Amino acid sequence: TVDDRIRLLGAMMAKRHLDRPKESLTENRALLEALEAGDERAAIAAVRKHVASAAKTLMQYVMTETGQLSL
What we know:
Shape: elongated
Number of strands: 0
Structural class: mainly alpha
Largest sheet: none
């Protein structure tokens, strides 16, 4: 399933990007706090930040693994 693939990618990236799990947790906490507060704008901003950060990390991982980028 898509969820399984996301979990697998997350686990693979966590080995290379050691700070990402902590960053992701912080991002998800911000989303939860916004939802609990009923703050739609903050929730949208939190989701956007999380997705953008995850996408950036994924691109770094893919580029590194394919030898196109050296970090």
